[in-house]
Amino acid sequence: MAKKKIKFTKGELKGQRDSLGQFQRYLPTLQLKQQQLQMEVRKTEAKLRKHREEIEEIKKEMVSWIGILAEPGIDLSGWVRPRNIITSTDNIAGVTIPVFKGVDFPDTEYDLFVMPLWVDSAIDQMRKVAELLAENNVVKKQYELLNRELKTTMQRVNLFEKVKIPECKENIKRIRIYIGDQETNAVGRSKIAKKKIEKVLQAA
What we know:
The protein has three helices and two strands, in the order H-H-E-E-H. The protein is mostly helical and about 200 residues long.
């Protein structure tokens, strides 16, 4: 992108100084936001790892009896599938994210004389997995939103640090040199003109 042309005037100098001041005041806020987002992104990554580990652990425990779910007349899907995922919202560094609150399951109603004794334990374990998966999906959404905002914030920090602030400083330097040169030249021209006037007056 082509650089914006600057005017070598005192008005432009003031404008560049004002812009530099704004960038320098805003940069610490952006840097703080970046740090907060980085911390929150790391937290969500840790949660996702923990969920994966917990789900794998429960699955290992289920391996020994999962086969008996294939017995005729055994269908637990209606009791282990969440009826509702309960969430709220929170604001992290200006980003609105969903927050997992819990899972609502259907009531377990079955004939205790017909169903095997292990059914209660199976439902409990499968609900744990379903709840962890539901929470994991919410945390994934948190991660996506926070990570997207982090990337945007990092781009802005880099823009300020590496482009805008150095550009303003360079422009201020160039304008000051130009104005200084112009003032020096003006003084020189004034002295020459004064001498010429003095010569004319002396000759008269």
